[in-house]
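Researcher: Here's the sequence for the chain we discussed earlier.
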Amino acid sequence: MAKIKLTQIRSKNGCDPRQKANLRCLGVRKMHQTVEVEDTPVIRGMIAKVAHLLKVEEI
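Model: Thanks. This is the structure I predict for it:
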């Protein structure tokens, strides 16, 4: 499967608790942290909910 590289570029302060939970489930815990995740429809849906906080790159 393809992978996606996620980097948090904006703070999660003031966000919805659901958005914070989505970031946590994606594996992003701090600002400017980069993680690689599998490209699945479930992950794409989670990214769509917090897209304004992340930079998304396809590998």
